[in-house]
Amino acid sequence: MLELLYWLDLFGVIVFAFSGALMAGRYQLDPFGVAVLSAVTAIGGGTIRDVILQTPVFWVKNPIYLYVILATAALTIIFIRCPKRIPKRFLLVSDAFGLALFAVLGTEKALTLGAAVPVAILLGMVTGVAGGMIRDVLCNVIPMILRQEIYATAAILGGVLFTFLLYLGLPEHIAIIGAILGALALRLAAIYWRVTLPAFEIIDHDESNK
Amino acid sequence: MLELLYWLDLFGVIVFAFSGALMAGRYQLDPFGVAVLSAVTAIGGGTIRDVILQTPVFWVKNPIYLYVILATAALTIIFIRCPKRIPKRFLLVSDAFGLALFAVLGTEKALTLGAAVPVAILLGMVTGVAGGMIRDVLCNVIPMILRQEIYATAAILGGVLFTFLLYLGLPEHIAIIGAILGALALRLAAIYWRVTLPAFEIIDHDESNK
Amino acid sequence: MLELLYWLDLFGVIVFAFSGALMAGRYQLDPFGVAVLSAVTAIGGGTIRDVILQTPVFWVKNPIYLYVILATAALTIIFIRCPKRIPKRFLLVSDAFGLALFAVLGTEKALTLGAAVPVAILLGMVTGVAGGMIRDVLCNVIPMILRQEIYATAAILGGVLFTFLLYLGLPEHIAIIGAILGALALRLAAIYWRVTLPAFEIIDHDESNK
Fold first, then answer.
1. Which residue ranges traverse the bilayer (chains A, B, C) (predicted)?
2. What is the rounded distance in angstroms from the CA atom of residue C186 to the CA atom of residue C158?
3. Which residues of chain A have a CB within 8 Å of the CB of C207?
4. CA angle (C43, C46, C49) in 5-degree steps
5. What are the chain B neighbours of A200 within 8 Å (beta carbons)?
6. Secondary-structure breakdown of chain B: helix, strand, coil percentages, each rounded to the nearest 5
7. Rounded to whole angstroms, how far apart are CA atoms A151 and A157?
């Protein structure tokens, strides 16, 4: 069980590190700059979660995460010689995988450490969303959570589904896999078929800056 | 006394959650996106304060804050059908209430936990200012603290006034109310009558980006 | 030895506070707004380091840092009547000093507190980089780490050099001075002679926002 959590967590770190490195390809960054943007994206959310829970930060306890990020950034630089030709959807989809994984794993960790259910779901969402948010803010781009349909919603669905499946009495690894698939399906549906929720009304753009 | 602090704190959370939801109305966000921007604005400052003080984060201990934010976001969405028609001053004034409340309550909490006076005043300011700052940074808008007159100043006045009134020997609840009113009055004066302090000179805009 | 660390740390706080105040001169900020931007720049990185290490935050333990920042901001306002005439390089060079100092001192602190070497180097980089990053994000400017050559790289070099010199058996104060000079030399070389590393390829700007 712990094995499964660990591998899923590493996989989430890899996909987010990859999305950070892809984003870095839009700026003329040297390799260390790419590695930093990868790292911020991959461990930003989990760091905030652990700091808020006041539990030892996961990558301080276990530096293997840092090596995985370095390797991901290096492989991205080596194999993707021309980030320009990577379709934008690639970045969106790798971000969606990280979002779904981290939202569920973050909820799991918070529950394990004794947090109340709504707190755990919020911290799960933070784990899934914050790394990409910092990546976008540093790049001076409006974060996906404000631009994309069903972004926070998919992360929250992951946490809700996980606690619900646990509540139904399913074993934890089933609940984790089920919740990740649910959140991922919703987010991919939003990307591919433009599934949306009704939006809170918008004001026109001229006024929005003054 | 604890009662009073608690209600003022909840009131601060409500006005900041409202200001976050209003800001969200400028983007085409689904309801969960609105709730997230509300939450970040309402609990961002207090979270940073508690993390720096290394005391349990207030909403992790007491999830009622999260329900209050959800309710505020929901009511804002339901009753404000057209955020476009809300005058901009509304956002500024609700932000001013949150700023004054949180600056004083944050100073009080830090002092209670044994922080030195200048540390407590700085953490009070952080409590009042940081939530709105994160809201503005996420929305890619220059934060109010850099655009608005007498913003940090009002927050600092709140903390200074509170410690000064305590030092004079006034009972704590009088000191709290007095300091909140003082900070609020200064900030509202800046909004309505454009009270200002002399500014550090400005350079012309062409140079500022290169 | 502790003496030396302390003075270097204060010097780093002063140069970063100065760079924050200079940046504030580009906005029409009142004196307290200037002080806040100074403080965020000067103590942002070390605060994040201490929070992640879950050790008491340095300026909460020792408020002298806050007085030093206030004094630096006040002197900058008083003596630099016209921030417009300050050449841009001034800001870059003071930022470089802060970067080199904090990267090495941050690595030292993390190692002392028992962090693994790669964790310590990463936290050193965060100490050197994060304050300026928050300053730039608040001012809605792309952070230097994404715009400047050899920025993260110089910070990482500082941490690597420090652990390497320690590993060679040099006394700690020599290792600190040597590592600071190495990181500073690399960063200044990047500023003055445009030393660069090969960049990860860039995509054209039209696509980068959509």
1. 6-25, 32-52, 64-83, 90-107, 113-138, 150-168, 174-193
2. 9
3. 84, 88
4. 150
5. 21, 24-25, 28-31, 34, 77, 83
6. 75, 0, 25
7. 10
Please report, in tens digits, the pLDDT of each residue of chain C (210 residues total). 668 888 999 999 999 999 898 888 777 777 888 899 999 999 999 999 999 999 999 999 999 999 999 999 999 888 876 666 677 778 888 889 999 999 999 999 999 999 999 999 999 999 999 999 999 898 888 888 887 778 889 999 999 999 999 999 999 999 999 999 999 999 998 888 766 666 665 444 444 443
Q: What are phi and psi of B75, to 5 degrees?
A: -65, -40
What is the distance between the alpha carbons of residues A146 and C75, in angstroms, rounded to a whole number? 40
Structure tokens at B75: 């009511």
Q: Which residues of C touch A82 (CB under 8 A)?
A: 201
Which of A22, A28, A30 is the best residue to mutate to test the C interface, defined by the most C CB atoms within 10 Å of its own CB? A30
CB-hemisphere CA count at 13 Å for B2? 1
What is d(CA B99, CA B155) in angstroms, rounded to the nearest whole number?
6
d(CA B177, CA B57): 24
Chain C residues touching A51 at Cβ < 8 A: 51-52
Helical residues (DSSP H) of B54-199, grouped into ranges: 58-61, 64-79, 88-112, 117-138, 144-147, 152-167, 172-192
In this structure, what token pair is assigned to residue A133? Answer: 């948010």
Report CA Rg, chain B: 17
Q: What percent of chain B clears pLDDT 70, i.e. is strictly above it? A: 89
CA distance B128 to B114: 19
- Compute the Cα dihedral for A197, A198, A199, A204 and give only its sign: positive
Q: What is the pLDDT of residues B10-25, one digit of tens each?
A: 999 999 999 899 888 7
* The residue type at B190: A
Phi/psi class of residue B196: alpha, beta or left (left: φ > 0; alpha: ψ in -120 to 50)?
beta
CA Rg, chain A, in Å?
17
**Does the beta carbon of A203 lie under 8 angstroms from any beta carbon of chain B?**
yes
Query: Hunting for tokens 């940073």 — which residue is that?
Result: B48
Of A52, A196, A201, the CB nearest to B51: A52
- B200: DSSP letter: P
Contact between chains at A30 and C116 (C-beta distance less than 8 A): no
Instruction: List subunits contacting chain A, requiring 3 or more Cβ pairs under 8 Å.
Output: B, C
Closest-CA distance of chain B to residue A203, Å: 5
User: Which residues in chain C (44-83) have CB-CB distances under 8 A to chain A?
Assistant: 51-54
